[in-house]
């Protein structure tokens, strides 16, 4: 079997990075901004917004992770009852 890597293969992007980016966009949109708008704002305001957006995204990602863990535990517990 010949498994040479192709030069045109796109690297797989981390799913968490995609989710984090979407959550940051969501936060900015809720505040009335887009990433394009950030280029026109003062640096201190951009830094403040991005810190807040990052914290928002981190908390939401933790929530998603906790829910996924809970669902897995519930499924595992239900599976043991079926035996």
Walk me through the structure.
With 83 residues, the protein is an all-alpha fold. It has one domain (15-81). Helix content is 71%, strand content 0%. It is elongated, with a radius of gyration of 20 Å. Helix 1 (15-30) packs across helix 3. It has helices at 15-30, 35-38, 43-81. 4% of the residues are buried.
Low-confidence stretches: none
Tally of extended strands? 0
Q: What is the number of helices?
A: 3
Main sheet record: none
The averaged pLDDT comes out at 86
- Class per helix and strand makeup: mainly alpha
Shape type: elongated
Strand content: under 5%
Number of domains: 1
Query: Percentage of helical residues?
Result: over 70%
Q: What is the N-to-C succession of helices and strands? A: HHH
If you compute it from the alpha carbons, what radius of gyration comes out, rounded to the nearest whole angstrom?
20 Å
**C-alpha end-to-end distance:** 42 Å
């Amino acid at each position: 079997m010949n498994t040479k890597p192709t030069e045109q293969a796109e690297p797989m992007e981390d799913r968490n990075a995609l989710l984090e980016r979407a959550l940051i966009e969501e936060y900015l949109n809720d505040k009335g901004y887009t990433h394009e708008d950030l280029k026109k704002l003062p640096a201190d305001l951009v830094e403040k917004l991005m810190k807040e957006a990052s914290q928002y995204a981190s908390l939401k990602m933790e929530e998603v992770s906790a829910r996924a863990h809970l669902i897995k535990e519930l499924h595992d517990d239900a599976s043991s009852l079926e035996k």
